[in-house]
Amino acid sequence: MKKNIVKRIGVLLLAGVMVASFVGCGSKDSASNDASNVIASDGEMFESENLDAGQVKLLGKVYDLPVDYSKINKKFQLRDEMTQQFNVKVPAMGTLDSIYLDVYNRDNANILVSLKNTRGDDELPKNCQISSITAQTEYADKGVILLPGDISVGSTAYDITGTYGEPDTTIDKADGFTYVYEKGNNTYTFEFSRSVEGCAKIIIESK
Fold first, then answer.
1. Distance between CA 25 and CA 76 in Å, rounded?
2. Rounded to an integer, what distance in angstroms lies between the CA atom of residue 67 and that of residue 64?
3. What pLDDT digit, counting tens, does each position of 107-117 carry?
4. With contact defined as beta carbons under 8 Å apart, do 202 and 152 qualify?
5. C-alpha to C-alpha distance for 114 and 3, rounded to whole angstroms
6. What torsion do the CA atoms of 141, 99, 187, 191 make, to the nearest 10 degrees?
C-alpha cells in the first residue's frame, strides 16, 4: 500500500515538473516572438549607408526620394484640415510649399514639406510627390526622420562628416554653419546653430 502511494506521489511530482517546464518553454517562446515582433516593427533597412541611394526613413519605413505623399498619408496628416476640406489643389506642373505634416498620435511632432505636381492638371495633395522635406530638432527626432548611417537632427558635425565625408559646400554664418551634400537628384542640407546642440535642421530637396 505504501509503495503504491509513493509511486502515485512520484508520478504526480513528475507530471508537475513536466507541466512547469512546458509552461516555462512556452513563456520563452512567446517572449522571443514578442522581441522579434518589436525588432520587425522597428523598420526597414537602408540599401546603403551613404546618401547615394536617395532614401529617407520616415517613422521606421524606408522610402525612395522623392516620396509619394499617398505612401505616408496614413502616418502624416496635413495640418491645415481646411486644405482637405475645401479640396485645395496643387497647380499643374507646380508646387505647393510650406505644408506642415503632423505625425499621427504624437504631440508636437511634424515635418515641413513641399508638394510637387508632375501632371498636366491640378491635383489633390494625395496625388503629388514630396519634393522637399524640412525637419527641425524640436519637432522631428530619429523616430520621425532618419537618413542612412543613423543620421538625423541632433547628430553632430563629426557624425555627419564621418559618415558621408566632407560636404560639397560649407557655409559659415555668424550664428553657425551649414553643410551641403549634392547626391544625384537630391540635395541634403544640414544646418547647425551655436544655440542648439547637434544638427538643428535637415533639408532634403529632390530636383
1. 41
2. 6
3. 999 999 999 99
4. yes
5. 85
6. -50
Considering the entire predicted model, what is its pTM? Answer: 0.78
Question: Rounded to an integer, what distance in angstroms lies between the CA atom of residue 98 and that of residue 115?
Answer: 9
Nearest to 199 by CA among 186, 185, 189, 184: 189
Q: Which are the contacts of 178, defined by CB distance < 8 A and separation ≥ 6?
A: 169, 170, 171, 189, 190, 191, 192
Confidence of residue 12 (pLDDT cuts 50, 70, 90): very low
Q: Residue 122: pLDDT band by 50, 70, 90 thresholds?
A: very high
In residues, how long is the chain?
Answer: 207
CB-CB contact of 113 with 130 (8 Å): yes
Q: Which helix (H) or strand (E) holds 154?
A: none
Residue 87 half-sphere exposure toward CB, CA atoms < 13 A:
2
Residue 151, φ and ψ in degrees, nearest 5: -100, 135
Q: Output the pLDDT for position 87.
A: 82
Q: Is the pLDDT of residue 134 over 60?
A: yes
Please confirm whether the linkage preceding 167 is cis (ω < 30° from 0). no
Dist CA 128 CA 116 (whole Å): 6
* pLDDT tens digits for range 36-50: 222 233 579 999 999
Q: Grid coordinates standing for 188?
A: 541634403
